Amino acid sequence: MIVVTAALLLVPAFLLKKLMFPNFDPREPPVLRPRLPVFGHIISLIRESGGFYARL
Fold first, then answer.
1. Distance CA 15, CA 33 (A)
2. At residue 15, does pLDDT exceed 80?
3. What pLDDT, on a 0 to 100 scale, did the predictor assign at position 52?
4. What CA–CA distances, in Å, run from 34 to 15, 31, 40?
5. Which of 2, 23, 27, 53 is most buried when burial is the number of CB atoms within 10 A of its CB?
6. Cα(38)–Cα(35) distance, rounded to whole angstroms?
7. Could you tell me which residues come within 8 angstroms of residue 28 by beta carbon, excluding any fewer than 6 positions away?
8. pLDDT value, residue 27
9. How far apart are CA 27 and CA 24, in angstroms?
10. DSSP the chain
């Protein structure tokens, strides 16, 4: 019972970590992390409305 519960908690945690913090090739340039990951896009969408999609 404890092993099953631990597995049910650890497997999603491991997958979530892999999705949130992927490994990058050391030859690639450094990754720029945004200060406000989701909110920056929402603010741009509100400010630019229709022009936001044209800019993409």
1. 20
2. yes
3. 67
4. 22, 10, 8
5. 53
6. 9
7. none
8. 92
9. 8
10. -HHHHHHHHHHHHHHHHHHHS----TTSPPPPPPSSTTHHHHHHHHHHTHHHHHH-
Under a CB-based contact definition with an 8 Å cutoff, are residues 21 and 28 in contact? no
Residue 8, pLDDT above cutoff 70? yes
Q: What is the dihedral of CA 35, 41, 46, 49, to 10 degrees?
A: 150
Q: Where are the domains of the chain?
A: 2-55
The chain-wide mean pLDDT, for the chain, equals 81
Tokens read off for 9 = 């908690």
Q: What tokens appear for 26 in the block?
A: 């050391």
Using only the alpha carbons of the chain, give its radius of gyration.
Answer: 18
